[in-house]
Amino acid sequence: MKCSICKGEIETHRDPDTNQIIWDQGNNADPINDGRCCDNCNATKVIPARFEMHRKKQVLLTHNDTELLEEYAAEKAEARACGDLDFPSFREWSGEVNPRQAAEGRWTYYADET
Ligand SMILES: [Zn+2]
Fold it and tell me: pTM value?
């Protein structure tokens, strides 16, 4: 099997005791592409790309991404319609702060630092 990123051969993993191949399907190359990749590309390209995606998502949250805000407003309206008046704040809902920090009012510092 070839790596979808570097086109090298994907290494097989063998059971150290029996020497039987226990895994030869490589790693999920998402978000680089939708194929499989070797261990080296996974460590040097795929995992950093996932971190980068996560970071970008965090930046969007910090900047109160419009789409997310709309989604939040819709869910909140739905919760209200069902009689749930304790819907979390946007920052809690989006995962930017945890509920405990929000309860303590610490999120304001957290937001100001970024
Ligand atoms: Zn590779």
Answer: 0.51
